[in-house]
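>> received
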Amino acid sequence: MFQPPPQGKKAVLSMDEPNGARQLTPETTSAAPTLSAPLSRPVIGLCVQRAAAPLIPRADEELTSDAPYSRKRATTPPEDGRPATRARVSSPTQVNAPSDPNNPERGLHRSDFAHFPKTTPDDVRDASPSTRERSPLQHTLLEVGMNCINSIEDIVEEKEGRKEREGELDKRERELDERERELDERERELEEEEKELDKRDKELEEEDKELDEREREQEEQERELEEREKEVDEQERYRGRQWSGLYEWEEQERELYVWEKELDELEREREEQERELEQREKELDEQEREFEEWEREREKDLDKWERELEEWERKRGGAGKGVRAAGEGVRREGYRVREAG
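>> returned
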């Protein structure tokens, strides 16, 4: 059975040794029994001091299997160079390679309790397995806990990064949807403009028909004037032959005078119509220039929208082909309208 230390003395277990061996402190030196020979039963919980080993490594040892166990682990533990958003648990021991079954000297923790060097005193070797195993097991549990904590932190950081990336993707999707709505609105505006242009073309066609009708009427009036001039010429010839008939001649002169007035009136009307036609042609030319200027502006806008659509297609993966096809249709319709005008 384990014997507690005398009253007033505290048994202190130290984990300062790299191999986890227990050592005596000033508080427990007088209370610790001397283990000069193996005991009949394993001593559990006693403070046992290992044989002192030199702290300065020798050249022939080179910190290999020939060196004492306390110097095998006298190396700097690895550092975690990853950026951390919170305090990490530092490793209390060095990360060791797995034990090699072909080389019993390699590896840190062994299940056959052969990790103590051959220089270990008999009293320590004969102690209970739990006494020899407890400290390495504690170190192993600490390493496992540290790895679990680091793994949990990595998982949390990965989830946070995934959430941030998903938020950025959602924001980008919303921007693309907004851009699609703007393009749809612009398409509707273009359709409205096309409808207005069609209406304007119909009005121009009706005005052209009216002008053609007025030209035909003017040509008809000119033919009538020519016929009346022929009649006047015929009457003049007849008047020359009938010069003796003064009364008849005067009557014909008055009729001719009236006809000349009518001819002058018709001539003035024709000149007025010609001036109106010239003015209308000037207006049509001005409207055609304005329409060509508008066509050029619309061509520039369509080229700009096509470049934006191509850029958007490359980012979206070809989802805007329908919109580009609609833009091509709008451009072809504009060419048709301009040729018709």
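>> Confidence is low (pLDDT under 50) at residues 8-57, 60-64, 88-98, 105-114.
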